[in-house]
Amino acid sequence: MSDPPRFAVVGRVNKGKSSIVATLAEDDTVRIDPRPGTTTEVREYPVRVDGRTLFVLVDTPGFEDAPRALAWLRSREVSAADRPARVAELLRAYQGTEEFADERKLLAPILAGANVLYVVDGTRPFRRNYEAEMEILRWAGRPGMALVNRIGDEDHGFEWHRALDQYFKMVRDFDAFSVTFEERVKLLESFRELRPEARAAIDEAITALTAQRRRRRGDAGSEIANLLLDELTHTEEIAVAHEAALEAERDRLERSFHDHLREREEAARRRVEALYAHGQVRFETTSLDRPIFQQDLFAEETWRLLGLTPPELVAASTLAGAAVGGAVDALVGGASVLAGT
After folding, report:
1. Whole-angstrom distance, CA of residue 34 vs CA of residue 2
2. Alpha-carbon distances of 234 from 157, 206, 208, 229, rounded to whole Å
3. What is the share, in percent, of the chain residues with pLDDT greater than 70?
4. SS3 252
5. How many other C-beta atoms can be found within 10 angstroms of the C-beta atom of residue 91?
6. What is the DSSP letter of 332?
């Protein structure tokens, strides 16, 4: 079996390289930080489904001194055919030193056969000093694609495309923070054109990831359905000697009821997060609190909070009934008194 395709994600520091790696690899262990220079070493992130590695993303440090590195490459005239060997000379010439340290780290996987994914920030203006980075990558001699990421609010995509089209076989817009599954698949389809000999491997990756998504959605749907079933049928019961004793127990039972809902919802959310490989992420969530449930069900403010119209609320309350609020059964002379929320 041939080795899986490898893609080196390269570019200047703080342009979203690690965010793109984390998004494509679905790996929340990738270090992402707004401060520049978070990635200081080369690290590989295999994309696996069912234990099989489909392709490998290589996160790299950013370019630090590309103009000087390019000047070194050009200090001796070589033919286009010999340019990759000249880049390899740069790595050997400064091995064991601090000179061109980041350039050598990011170029090593490319010279070893990885394809190039060059990342820029399309919300910042294009500057001529980026051309040194792109020219060095062209000298390395591997197929390359440019990804125009979006980190800020401005849009300089048009000028970036005009420049990048001169250096890369393909240029794609790719917002790492809002990308959909369909957009990820389109990017993988572009990988096929970038490296035709890896077409079969990329097709297999797309098929496997699509099947994985289908399973995830089914499993997540089952998890949510079970959550709703459990919460809609949960009751809190207590036997009391007389009706007056019910008031003393009401608050305790309501707290117990809401604690159960919170714990059950949190457990289900964690399982769904794990399905989508978000095990390391910590989300800020609004607690399921009692005051909302203590509002008048037919008050205008309650309709607004729940996003329901009055007829929808009537239907919902009729269908759900006591199951939504929970039931506190007070056994008083054979009578049950509803004391839920």
Report:
1. 37
2. 53, 42, 39, 8
3. 77
4. helix
5. 15
6. B
Beta-carbon contacts of residue 219 (< 8 Å; ≥ 6 apart): 275
Total-model pTM: 0.70
In Å, what is the CA distance from 150 to each residue of 125, 190, 244, 288? Answer: 12, 19, 63, 34
Residue range 111-170, pLDDT digits in tens: 999 999 999 999 999 999 999 999 999 999 998 999 998 887 888 999 999 999 999 989
Let me know: does 25 contact 57? Beta carbons within 8 Å. yes
List the domains of the chain with CATH numbers: 6-209 (3.40.50.300), 234-330 (no CATH)
Tokens in use for 206? 């797309």
Q: What are the pLDDT digits (tens) for 294-328?
A: 555 445 565 555 565 666 655 555 544 433 343 33
Q: Tokens 């995509």 belong to which residue? A: 157
List, in sequence order, every beta strand (DSSP E) within 123-262. Answer: 144-149, 170-173, 236-238
Average pLDDT over residues 50-77: 91
Note whether 4 and 55 are within 8 A (CB): yes
| DSSP three-state, residue 42 | coil
Two tokens at 146?
């440019």
Q: DSSP state, 120? A: E
pLDDT at residue 330, as a whole number: 34
**What's the longest Cα–Cα distance across the chain?**
102
Q: How far apart are the first and last CA of the chain?
A: 61
Tokens of 13: 């520091």
Q: For residues 240-258, b (16+ Cβ closer than 10 Å) or e, as one string? A: beeeeebeebbeebbeebb
